[in-house]
Structure formats: C-alpha cells, structure tokens
C-alpha cells in the first residue's frame, strides 16, 4: 500500500522518509521543507532529552554499525546533575547491578568545552555481555552491554544539558570513520589553549587528565606536552 506524503494538502506518494524518525514520508524535498515547522514538534529525533541509551544491539536484524539510529533511545533522567544521583537512577530504572563511568567522547562538530559522558555496568569476569561496537568506537576502548550517554564537561564551562537524538547519532556516526583518541587529544589541546591563553599550535596534544594542581603551572604544562611547551 502506497504511503501518502506527510506534507499538508499533498496527496502524492511519499518516496523518501525523514532521516531522523524514519516515519514521516515525503514526495519531494520541497514538501519536506514546507512541513518541517510542523514535523519538528513531534519528530522523536528532534526532541531534546538529557540522557539516551545506546543499546548494544539494534532493534532490527541490521548490523550495529549500519543502524546506529535504531540503537539510540531517549532516557530522560530525573536525577540529572550529580554522578551519584545519576548512577542511582540508572541502577534503579534499568535494573543494573552497578553503574560507573566507562568513557567519554567529544562531538562531531568541534565542541571543546563539553563532551559526551558514558555510563555503563562493570563487566564481571564470568559475565557474557555483547560488545557495544558503536560505543567502543566512540570511546576508543571496548564497551559491553547497553550504555547511557549524557553531556558533561570540565568545571567552569557551561554544558548544554539537553540535546537531540539526531545530534548524538551524528556524533556516533562520526567515530565510525575517525579515531576517538586523536579527536579527544586535539579537543583537549584547543580547550587548554583557550583556558590559558597560550599558543599551543606546536604542541601535539595536552593531557590534563591527571594534573596535580598543587604543582606550578609551567611544570604541569611541560610534563603534559612531553617537554614541548616552554614558558
């Protein structure tokens, strides 16, 4: 049975679907554009939430890396804002026996003051969980089972709390062709340059993850850049 174009007052057959929700169909690009003001209020991919689940397996028989959109599910947290509250809620609502940070990754569009923060379960030695291939690529290390993704960032920077499914899917797709560790190092370097006002263009990367802030800044920078930065 033919699907009718979703645009108002159009009775043509819908030949292409909304890339976000895969539900609304349109006969042409013009009809999709004209209907967008209406569609964006109901399209699941354009609604904003503060957390999403990334399932290890898609909801269809498609392979994980070709159906990322189908693996992402909105999961709005009521206790958003503190790690303790977030972890407790994830365990309570999902039946997880544990919840902990398992990784983080920056987005696809160049943000360097916030990143996606990933919660998962601790994998026991005898537990058999499917590898979450999409999460593994984004985080740069193996991830198992379903994971929960929020936005977070270093202290002192504003982090947009809610975001669309579409934005997250684009970021996850980005890491199918980009190396996570290289992107993370580059964004950390640009953020550090903005924070300190220093020109770090000649520095390959800056790792401030384990900084001892009681030590002099110059000493920390020299160590983090393998001696390539000098005051």
Helix-strand blueprint:
Layout: E1 16-17, E2 25-26, H1 29-39, E3 48-49, E4 52-54, H2 68-71, E5 72-74, H3 83-94, E6 100-105, E7 115-120, H4 133-139, E8 147-152, E9 163-164, H5 165-174, H6 180-196, H7 217-224
Antiparallel strand pairs: 1-2, 3-9, 4-5, 4-8, 6-7, 7-8
| Low confidence ranges | none
Q: Output the strand order for the largest sheet.
A: 5-4-8-7-6
Helix content: 25-40%
User: Main β-sheet: number of strands, strand sense, barrel status?
Assistant: 5 strands, antiparallel
Overall spatial form: globular
The percentage of residues in β strands lies in 5-15%
Q: Could you give the count of β-strands?
A: 9
Order of helices and strands: EEHEEHEHEEHEEHHH
Total of DSSP H or I helical runs spanning 4+ residues: 7
**Rg computed from alpha carbons, rounded to a whole number of angstroms:** 21 Å
CA(first)-CA(last) distance: 71 Å
Mean pLDDT: 83
* Oligomer classification: single chain
| Structural class computed from helices and strand pairing | alpha+beta
